């Protein structure tokens, strides 16, 4: 029997992937927002891909992180700067077709009209 692999959703791109491929961001009981590479720190957490694009999406829309971590006020400037510095350590990442499974590659077409006509 295969071992269960936990899956989580990245708040940057909304793709579901293995927990090990993501980094956990935690709101500590003191209210600070920090990165938790071990995934075991105490506090409310959320997950982001280890890529610049996902981190930039989260940092660029501060309401996303505020909502995910249930912050009462805006992210502290020191915490924001720490996340920006962390994002610089990750490689730039281009999404592959398998990661874009929710994104249509061609426009949807209307069903064949001829098949639905009454004869």
Which descriptors apply to this entry?
119 residues; alpha+beta; Hypothetical Cytosolic Protein, Chain: A; 3 helices; disordered C terminus
How would you describe what is shown here?
- The chain has 119 residues and is of the alpha+beta class.
- It has one domain (7-95): YlxR-like (Hypothetical Cytosolic Protein, Chain: A, 2-Layer Sandwich), CATH 3.30.1230.
- It has 3 helices and 5 strands.
- It has helices at residues 52-60, 62-68, 77-89; strands spanning 7-9, 16-18, 22-27, 33-36, 44-49.
- The protein has a 3-stranded antiparallel β-sheet, with helices on one face. It has a two-stranded antiparallel sheet with strand order 1-2.
- Helix 1 (52-60) runs antiparallel to helix 3.
- The chain is globular, with a radius of gyration of 19 Å.
Relevant CATH superfamily: YlxR-like
Helix and strand succession? EEEEEHHH
List the uncertain runs. 96-110, 113-119
The CATH architecture comes to: 2-Layer Sandwich
N-C termini distance: 55 Å
